[in-house]
What we know:
The structure holds two protein chains of two kinds.
Chain A lengths: L8 H4 L1 H11 L1 E5 H8 L3 H13 L3 E8 L2 E8 L1 H22 L4
Antiparallel strand pairs in A: 1-3, 2-3
Chain B lengths: L5 H19 L6 H20 L6 H23 L2 E3 H23 L4 H20 L2 H20 L2 H31 L9
Amino acid sequence: VPDLPELDPVVHAQLRLAAMTLLNSSEEAEFTWLRDRLGATDGNLSVHLSKLEEAGYIKVSKRFEERKPRSFYRLTDKGRAAYLRYLEALRSLLGKDLSPRD
Amino acid sequence: MSQANDHELRQRLELIDRMVAEGRRGLEYYGSFFVLWGAGHLAALAWQSFLPYGNWAWGTCMWTCAAIAIALGFRISRRQRVHTRLGQAIGGIWWAFGGAMTIAFIFDRQHPIETFFLLLGMANVTSGLALRWRTQIAVGLLWWAAAGLSLALHSDDIQRLAFAIMALVGEVGFGLYLMASERRDRTASKVDTGA
Lengths: 102, 195
């Protein structure tokens, strides 16, 4: 049996995968922008972003804009590498699954 | 982790596709800039054609628009909630257009209108291709058609008419369409991420 690639469980959760995809196409994104795009609640998104931060996949910077505190998130190099590895593994798994039908 | 089933993997792939599309919508539309410049061009045309001190029309209107556009640009960038590489690339195209157009406005005495049509067509087509957005590509092609018409016919009246129509359609109309799209996107339904 050929070795199947492992899917990174930190990336695999739907909300975290969606957030990482959005961050992969951005230099940085503000919390409320992510929340609006993901249709998540503040609490739920915070929990998932914290997990990504703990894994070292994203970095948060807080700053004041128009007198309001804002949190901006960006993918770290480690996070981008993990995301690309996940995509590769996903393609590979789907490719293997699809091959009998091709 | 245990391997996910085929259905789950396909769901993840679809989710990634949707998020990539959603990320593209994060770009600011800058519709107000098109409306501003379109109104400026129409005002300059009307002033030059119907009001006294017509030779002041273009300089006054264009430098006023430039000052307002710069102020508006700073205001929008301060409030921007996402910074994308694609957004920076599109912004670069329009800054480059502004620089080229300023040089043409000051030094090009032979074909300033045609140069403007060609450059604006190029900026719109390039932005449209980068965004994979047919509407903006079509607007760019209209500008090029107006340039071709002006260069072929060499008639001041036709040139002015083409400019007025394009300022109305390609700038004010397109800008209003962008602003409406922006408003629609803001109120669009949330994406289902299982959150």
